[in-house]
Amino acid sequence: MAAIELRDVRKSFQALEVIHGIDLVIPDGSFTVLVGPSGCGKSTLLRMMAGLEEVTSGEIRIDGSRCDHLVPSARGMAMVFQSYALYPHMSVEENLRFGLENQKMAKAEIVARVAKAADILQIGHLLARRPNQLSGGQSQRVAIGRAIVKEPKAFLFDEPLSNLDAELRVKMRGELIALHRRLKSTMVYVTHDQVEAMTMADQIVVLNEGRIEQVGSPVELYARPRNLFVARFLGAPPMNLLKGRLRAGETPAVILANGTTVPLPGREIALADGSEVSLGIRPEHAEPKADGLAVRVHTTEVLGAGTIVHATTTGGEEFTLSLRGISRVTAGETMSVAVDPRFAHVFDADGHTVGATDDWRADYLN
Ligand SMILES: Nc1ncnc2c1ncn2[C@@H]1O[C@H](COP(=O)(O)OP(=O)(O)OP(=O)(O)O)[C@@H](O)[C@H]1O
């Protein structure tokens, strides 16, 4: 087990810098998820930790020791790829043994490690098969097994579940969480799927264009996004945004474009009266109620346990509600919506969160 530390890590491909100075601590034993849109640099960052990509500048440490100059095999990290990367001409057992035999490990130790990994992943009955005789989920288990047998200081996962169908992905998500609980190893996991990030991580790192937007636990990032990017990236359907102006005062308020006033009792917002702001409301924090914000429904999605209502404000802004159960609301209808001010997010003109207290627990935990 080991902590991984990155200090001012940069990466350029030819003249183009794609990672712009990352400082990050991945705590020992944590399940840290690197998440962000396509091309933000998640894989490059992970590959630099693994040693598959050189750092252009900066330091990477594992267990306190510099490792950025070491070859991958000397770093004690094991990587699991989206493509599984199994050797097609070898049996599952040979795939599991291969890396260990290369290290000239004693035969008895190899046998013991392979047996243990096969037991953890429940792939004992597949050991004689070739990769082309495995399902996607089985292949991914073997790929994870190949990492487990190395008994690495840290596991690095690069979108390991994205080739699996939706149902299997959910199942494997649970298995990986259980594996982490069992092994207590440091795990770094790259995904562009915010649901995987929310459900698997103890620590989420949100990346955007080669920079860190925010680091924190899933609920911290959900309840207290530092900026618009994080606010919109986590949560599905995404947070609604309504443009308005701040009315400063003891009880500040946002005056929306259509004149609706949303008071924000208990907030201290250090912006001048009349400043341009955006009000962020998650779809689950709005409900039908008289004398609220008028919206016109254009689509409803009845999911059974809930109904997603897609609507437009009189100012022409999109507004989505997530209602419990099966809603009577139908397309074409106009409804009045109340927003719960405790869960309102306010962003300044640059997209930075303003007026949020540190204590989100009081409002969010039930
Ligand atoms: N070998 C390379 N040569 C040149 N540019 C590269 C190379 N590898 C990655 N890049 C660029 O670096 C940036 C980050 O790529 P990276 O693959 O790390 O992103 P990502 O967040 O993992 O994306 P995805 O989710 O699509 O895999 C992108 O702009 C990409 O085009």
From TrEMBL:
Instruction: Report any Pfam family annotated for this entry.
Output: OB_MalK
Ranges of residues in domain ABC transporter: 4-234
Q: Name the major location.
A: membrane
Q: Does the keyword ATP-binding apply?
A: yes
Compartments, as annotated in UniProt: Cell inner membrane
Q: Name one GO molecular function term.
A: ABC-type transporter activity
Q: Which BP terms in the Gene Ontology apply to this protein?
A: carbohydrate transport
Q: How does it sit in the membrane?
A: Peripheral membrane protein
Q: Known CDD domains for this protein?
A: ABC_MalK_N (cd03301)
Q: Which UniProt keywords apply?
A: ATP-binding, Nucleotide-binding, Transport
InterPro entries the record matches: AAA+_ATPase (IPR003593), ABC_transporter-like_ATP-bd (IPR003439), ABC_transporter-like_CS (IPR017871), ABC_transpr_MalK-like (IPR015855), ABC_transpr_MalK/UgpC-like (IPR047641), Mo/tungstate-bd_C_term_dom (IPR008995), NA-bd_OB-fold (IPR012340), OB_MalK-like (IPR040582)
Gene Ontology terms: cellular component = ATP-binding cassette (ABC) transporter complex, substrate-binding subunit-containing
PROSITE patterns membership? ABC_TRANSPORTER_1, ABC_TRANSPORTER_2
NCBIfam families reported in the protein's UniProt record: PRK11650.1 (NF008653)
Tell me its family: Belongs to the ABC transporter superfamily.
Q: What is this protein called?
A: ABC transporter ATP-binding protein
* Taxonomic source organism: Pleomorphomonas carboxyditropha
Query: What phylogenetic lineage does the species belong to?
Result: Bacteria, Pseudomonadati, Pseudomonadota, Alphaproteobacteria, Hyphomicrobiales
